[in-house]
UniProtKB/TrEMBL annotation:
<dbReference type="InterPro" id="IPR037158">
    <property type="entry name" value="Thr_synth_N_sf"/>
</dbReference>
<feature type="domain" description="Threonine synthase N-terminal">
    <location>
        <begin position="2"/>
        <end position="72"/>
    </location>
</feature>
<dbReference type="Pfam" id="PF00291">
    <property type="entry name" value="PALP"/>
</dbReference>
<dbReference type="Pfam" id="PF14821">
    <property type="entry name" value="Thr_synth_N"/>
</dbReference>
<dbReference type="InterPro" id="IPR004450">
    <property type="entry name" value="Thr_synthase-like"/>
</dbReference>
<dbReference type="GO" id="GO:0004795">
    <property type="term" value="F:threonine synthase activity"/>
</dbReference>
<comment type="similarity">
    <text>Belongs to the threonine synthase family.</text>
</comment>
<dbReference type="InterPro" id="IPR001926">
    <property type="entry name" value="TrpB-like_PALP"/>
</dbReference>
<dbReference type="Pfam" id="PF24857">
    <property type="entry name" value="THR4_C"/>
</dbReference>
<keyword id="KW-0456">Lyase</keyword>
<dbReference type="InterPro" id="IPR029144">
    <property type="entry name" value="Thr_synth_N"/>
</dbReference>
<feature type="domain" description="Tryptophan synthase beta chain-like PALP">
    <location>
        <begin position="93"/>
        <end position="322"/>
    </location>
</feature>
<dbReference type="InterPro" id="IPR036052">
    <property type="entry name" value="TrpB-like_PALP_sf"/>
</dbReference>
<keyword id="KW-0028">Amino-acid biosynthesis</keyword>
<keyword id="KW-0791">Threonine biosynthesis</keyword>
<dbReference type="InterPro" id="IPR051166">
    <property type="entry name" value="Threonine_Synthase"/>
</dbReference>
<dbReference type="InterPro" id="IPR000634">
    <property type="entry name" value="Ser/Thr_deHydtase_PyrdxlP-BS"/>
</dbReference>
Length: 465
């Protein structure tokens, strides 16, 4: 299994190469050279143990180049983050409507599954090469927290996390800034998530940093991150008993939704994919109106979805265009320069055939948190509420055909203010969250400026070395 880039990069990379590169040299995103056909019984594996399923999927996508021990360690850490009391964390709301709880890992967010997997795989790849790596990541809250917990203390990795200052929840910030590890730097950026993401993409191609060694990212632009999210679609669909269930995904950077697309592409029991977005709805506008426009992100209760330039939309465009690297390159180069592009009618229709999308307002989000508690007895986070609101609307309008699985991506206690406002009481927090308060925080601040970011990262690398 080798990997190519969405913008035409064809010097094939192994999984290890794609993992450590993060981004292809021409700015594109890595995808498999061809989508594999499972050489095992995918249905049986999906119904079986989660770690065993993950091992088989990792080997299918070429992760075996890192050795059996690394693959098994990654799969076990992923299983430990996924299961609830030893079982697939599905909660039935109605006969054909389920919540998939993806927040039972160390930071109580779905990012833990992929990040817990990435850490041992990255260490194994670096150990094979005898090298060290600087990882940079942009976060709207959960990615950064999961990355810090996964990579803190690594002998091979230096991690720099950029988050939009004041635009993550207090719990998300504390989960990053209270981890005291010499190999981790937390940076608050005076801007929005898209500013942070722009900085990371610039850093990955910065010659001054490349001269100091390997540099990559753990955002979902990294194929290794995205791959860690594929198994739970397969496992959830199998254990729900539903035939080709529709998955409704609360969407920011579109990585989680694209992982569902991958699960379906390789023959999994995955039906329609629906991306639910908040007021930052560039993805919805692109798919439904044919115009992809980067506006300033506005702050919402579902802060991890406050994204107006979702990186993984590029992977979807590449696939929907028939893997036309030239067209993908031209579209995203133009978008990078002007912040606005028009999609051809043919491309728009192709995108709609792969995924649908809708926008959920703040009022709808709050009302759905209340409904989930009163009707189903569930206390859910704002991101989950966005997805559940979209799912219920699709049921009411008849757009949903058959059963649905709604991804529940974070513990409600990570967003106590908004949930309390909706319900009239504060969600009960697990000890891993309540114990954060009062701990010492370590945080640097900087403007939303690439030059400042280069200086900050360069100084940190030199200090660590």
């Amino acid at each position: 299994m080798n990997y190519i880039g969405t913008r035409g990069f064809k010097e094939q990379r192994s999984f290890a190469g794609a993992l450590l590169d993060g981004l292809a040299p021409d700015g594109g995103l890595y995808v498999p050279q061809a989508w594999p056909t499972p050489d095992f019984d995918l249905s049986a594996a999906s119904n079986g143990g989660y770690a065993d399923l993950t091992v088989q999927l990792l080997n299918l996508f070429g992760v075996g180049v890192l050795g059996d021990q690394a693959v098994k360690a990654a799969a076990q850490r992923t299983e430990d983050a996924f299961l609830r009391d030893g079982a697939v964390p599905l909660t039935r709301l109605e006969n054909d409507l389920y919540l998939l709880e993806l927040y039972h890992g160390p930071t109580h967010a779905f990012k833990d599954m992929a990040m817990q997997m990435m850490a041992p795989l990255t260490d194994a790849a670096l150990a094979q090469r005898g090298e060290k790596l600087t990882l940079v990541t942009a976060t709207s809250g959960d990615t950064g927290a999961a990355a810090v917990r996964a990579f803190a203390g690594s002998e091979h990795v230096k991690l720099i996390v950029f988050h939009p200052l004041g635009r993550v929840s207090p719990v998300q910030r504390l989960q990053m800034t209270t981890v005291q590890a010499d190999n981790v730097l937390n940076v608050g950026v005076n801007g929005d998530f898209d500013d942070c993401q722009k900085i990371v993409k610039a850093l990955l191609s910065e010659p001054a940093l490349k001269a100091q060694g390997l540099i990559s990212s753990v955002n979902s632009i990294n194929w290794g991150r995205l791959l860690g999210q594929v198994p739970y679609y397969l496992s959830a669909a199998a254990h729900s008993g539903l035939d080709k269930p529709e998955f409704v995904v609360p969407t920011g950077n579109f990585g989680d939704a694209f992982a569902g697309w991958v699960a379906r592409q390789i023959g999994g029991n995955v039906g329609h994919l629906h991306a639910a977005v908040n007021r930052n709805d560039a993805l919805n506008q692109a798919i439904n109106n044919g115009r992809y426009v980067r506006r300033q992100a506005v702050e919402t209760a579902s802060v991890s979805m406050d994204v107006q330039a979702p990186s993984n939309f590029e992977r979807l465009v590449f696939e929907a265009s028939g893997r036309d690297a030239g067209a993908t390159r031209d579209l995203f180069n133009a978008f990078g320069q002007s912040g606005e592009v028009a999609l051809s009618g043919h491309l728009q229709e192709a995108l709609k055939s792969e995924v649908s999308a809708s926008t959920v307002s703040e009022d709808q989000t709050k009302a759905t948190i209340k409904l989930a508690y009163e009707k189903y007895g569930q206390v859910i986070c704002p991101h989950t509420a966005v997805a559940l609101s979209a799912a219920l609307t699709r049921r009411e309008t008849g757009e949903a055909k058959g059963g649905q699985i709604v991804l529940s991506t974070a513990h409600a206690a990570k967003f106590p203010a908004f949930v309390t406002e909706a319900l009239g009481f504060e969600p009960k927090a697990p000890d891993a969250i309540t114990n954060l308060y009062g701990l010492t925080e370590t945080l640097s601040e900087m403007p939303a400026d690439v030059t400042a970011a280069v200086t900050t990262v360069k100084a940190f690398i030199e200090w660590i070395d």
